[in-house]
Every structure is written in structure tokens, then in C-alpha cells.
Amino acid sequence: MKLYPNLILDALRNVRYPGTGKDIVEMGIVSDDIRIDGMKVSFSMLFDKPNDPFIKSVVKAAETAILTYVSPDVLIKDNIEILTKEQVKAEPPRMLPDVKNIIAISSGKGGVGKSTVAVNIAVTLARKGYKVGLLDADIFGPSLPKMFGEEDARPMLEAVNGKELITPVNKYGVKMLSIGFFVNKDDAIVWRGAMAGNALKQLIGEGNWGELDYFLIDFPPGTSDIHLTLVQTLGITGAVVVSTPQDVALADARKGINMFTNEKVNIPILGLVENMSWFTPAELPENKYYIFGKDGAKKLAEEMNVPLLGQIPIVQSIREGGDEGKPVALNENSITGMAFDTLVDNFITSVDKRNAELEPTKKVDISKK
Ligand code: ADP
Question: In what order do the strands lie in the sheet with 80-84?
């Protein structure tokens, strides 16, 4: 016997809700997400109030109706999920529905060039024709306004479909918002966990981001609660971890990787970026000086079985680009521009690979409906 949703619905039309004379399908109690897997049937039933005195008897009657009118072999017992209107309302709609990939840019410790890498990945993606958003979630030291030369920008509110949204700053083809736009830049920022989390949620949920291929989030360094709350509510595609080759930085990067990959958080690492890999003086372009050690992040990537997306040298123009608000990767023909170009190609490949891994489960879900 092959089951299909209408068979189940027809059977359920025989169940009346006490005192109304109406059946439970007509009343909208039976949800329209009837799932069938062989002989196993599951769906949810939506009641107005959690203390509805008839919940138990109506659910029992629904089970009996299916076994009587469809087949006694249907596996329905314990497969009806009971929901109440309050619960359904409490479930927030998915944030950023028009964003294809949400990516965390993270580091174990500060000062390794995480923001520099985030900015240059963003402008390189935009140069390649992707729609890119960048959020400065580094609430303890927001540096993206400066790196974009937009320290004085004050994002405006605009009404979109009756809702007030914050318009991101649009620069170098990247839509960008930073907590730094909303505080006085000379004030020390003392955020407590919940406050910071809420401020970030607002920039994400109430930013007018529109359609994006990549939404990059520049996380604060380390492993704070704010990271975790954000990660768990957003449905992040994966994380990129930035480190220098230095031992102390690598130890923290390892912790950072474990924070994402641990069972509870379960976010895949899209790759590791080694920044400040070596120094080459302009007058001796063949020479490489491994100031922070050689290939440290490369070895860590191998050890932890994650891709190494790229190695970025220490170059004066990278620091200058950051300070002047003109990211160095804007110049695609410079050596650093080319380094970021390769890095971004590896990044795109890693994101695509991750999405391909997710694809089969998505397909199963669709066929079940
Ligand atoms: P983080 O976000 O990890 O705290 P930043 O991106 O703010 O680090 O970088 C710290 C400082 O190092 C900045 O002044 C930046 O311009 C500089 N910097 C970062 N990467 C490089 C690099 N590859 N070469 C030269 N300077 C760099």
C-alpha cells in the first residue's frame, strides 16, 4: 500500500473537535506538513492553548481514524507532534533568508590580522562579481570603519515594507556595518555579554542586507559567549580561522578551531589563513624572512585536517592600506592582490565543497514532503 497525504487528511476529516461540530482539518488543527516515510506517518497538530482540555482525546481520535480509515499498519503512534499557537509564534523567522552563505572570520587571539584578512577577502569577492556583506562583530575593537575609510559614516534608517532597517555603508562593492558606527570612537566600549549579543543581532536582523552571496562576519578574537550565541542562531555555513605562524598564536587558533567544531556548536572549518607568513623587503624581493616562524599555520592545517586557504606575507602596503581605508586587494595586480586572489579562489572552492556535502540531505527532505 502506498500512502500519500490526502489519504491521511481524508481520514482525519472524520475527527470532530468537541462542541464545534467541525472536523479538525477544517479547523486548521492539522498542519499541512504531513510527512510520509514508507508506512510511517508524522505531522503536527496546532491547538490554541496549551491547556486545551481536549488535546489528548483529539490526538487519540486522530490516531484511531488513521488506523481505521487508512490501514491498521500505519505507524502513527507517538508521531503526532502537539504544538500550541504560542509556541509557533515564539519561533522566530529565519534571519537573513536572502543570504546564501554566512561565514565567520575568527582568530584565537587579537592582532593576527583577522580584520585585515576579512576586509581583503570581502573586496576581492566583490571584485569577482559576488554580492558581499561584511559585519564588524568585533565589539571590543571595531576596526572596519577605519579600514574602509568610513569612520565618519552614520548609517541611515530607511523604511522597507513598513519596517525600519539600517542601510549598510556601501564601499568597494561591499555592504558593511560595524558596531563602531554607533559609538563614539574615542570611548572605551564596555559591553556586557547580553547587551553586545543584542546589538549584533540588531545589526544582522535589522540591516538592509538584501540578497547576498557571501555574508562575512568579523568575530571578536577568542572564544566568547557572543560568538556562540551568534553561531547557534544564524545557521552559519562555516568558519575561517586566521593565525600567524607563531606558536602562541597557533595554540589559540587550535582552541578557536575546537570551539567551532565541538559537538555542541558543530560548525565546519572552511579553512585556515596564515597571515604574516614572511617578510620580504622591497629592495630584496627574492628574500623571505620568517619573522614569526615558518609554515606554522600550514602545519596546523595539516594536523587538524582543514584546508590552508592561503599564506599572506607581511607587507608594508597591507598595513598602509588598512590605515588609509584602501584595502590592498583592490589592486589586483599587486603581489598582495594576487595572494588574496588565490586565497579567495580557495575560499570559494571550500564553501562550494561544504554546500555540496549538505546537498544530499536537502534532497531527502524535499522528497519526503
Ligand atoms: P586583528 O583583527 O586580528 O586584531 P588587524 O587586522 O587589526 O588584526 O591587524 C593588526 C595590525 O596589523 C593592523 O595594523 C594591520 O594593518 C596590520 N597587518 C595585518 N596583516 C598584515 C600584513 N600581512 N602585513 C602588514 N601588516 C599587517
Answer: 35-37, 40-47, 80-84
Ligand 1 lining (C-beta closer than 6 Å):
107, 110-116, 143, 275-276, 312, 314-315, 318-319, 322
Q: Are residues 25 and 163 in the same domain?
A: no
In a domain, 279, yes or no: yes
DSSP 32: S
Task: Give the closest residue (by CA) to ligand 1 atom 6.
Answer: 113
Of 48, 63, 90, the domain-final residue: 90
104 plus 136 within the same structural domain: yes
Mean pLDDT, the chain, integer: 88
Reported as a single tens digit per residue, the pLDDT across 143-157 is: 999 999 999 998 989
- CATH assignment of the domain containing 314: 3.40.50.300
**136 and 82 inside one domain:** no
Distance CA 34, CA 16 (A): 19
Find, among 231, 341, 256, the residue nearest to 306 by Cα: 256
Q: Which of 58, 90, 122 is the last residue of a domain?
A: 90
Residue 322 CA: which ligand 1 atom is closest? Answer: 16
Q: Contact 290/278 with Cβ under 8 angstroms?
A: yes
Listed residue (50, 71, 220, 238) closest to 141, CA to CA = 220
Q: pLDDT tens for residues 188-206?
A: 666 666 677 778 888 998 9
- 369, part of any domain: no
| For range 75-91, the mean pLDDT | 83
Domain membership of residue 136 as a residue range: 99-358
Q: How far apart are the CA of 217 and the centre of ligand 1, in A?
A: 17
296 and 276 co-located in one domain: yes
Please state the separation of Cα 317 from the chain's center in Å: 31
Please say if the pLDDT value at position 30 is more than 90.
yes
Mark whether 84 and 112 lie in a shared domain: no
Alpha-carbon distance of 28 to 18, in angstroms, equals 15
Domains identified in the chain, total number: 2
pTM of this structure: 0.75
Atom nearest to 321 CA in ligand 1: 16
Residues ≥6 apart with Cβ < 8 Å to 61 = 15
What pLDDT does 256 receive? 85
